Amino acid sequence: AIAVALALECDPRIASYTERPRTLSLGDKNVELHFWVRHASGLEEFVLLVADADCLQTAGGIPRPREAERWQARARDAGLSLRFVTEHDVRVAGAEIAQHNRLLAFAQVAQSLGNRLALRARILAHMELQSRARIDQLEAALVPFDSADVQAVTCELICLGALDFDREQELTRRSVVAQ
Questions:
Q1: Of 2, 1, 9, nearest to 107 (Cα)?
Q2: Which among 32, 96, 152, 156 counts the fewest CB atoms within 10 Å?
Q3: Which residues contact 176 (CB under 8 A, 6 or more apart)?
Q4: Whole-model pTM?
């Protein structure tokens, strides 16, 4: 659940989410749904995490929740949009989850900086002129701001969706960020 929450927290396409928003019953089972998610587009959905033990292997080798059709039918009857996230999905997203963890740690540091708003404005102004820059180039361009502060606020801007980077690559000082 933590890995999925991290992914939701660091995804700029997600406007908000709540953990354990409600239960859904299926027969004599009453299951707590793991997340309610509102996307920036306005789409709302509920997320149910499914353990490997509760999945069947498909012909392609990708696990599918054992009672997926029944759960979807029950969700439709309750007027809900339901998405499954399996343990397999979380394992496959391992590198991305590590990236989210790193981004969130830096974004949390940025929250405590007294110069955060000024630095945000300077980074965004620089990016308006350059459109793309490595993080170490931002650090050099924004002297006398501390390089650690520039890194933290840059990560915060990534989490907010104001900047982005190639998420297939590890986030480092040499990563290229763009608007």
A1: 9
A2: 32
A3: 132, 133, 134, 165, 166
A4: 0.72
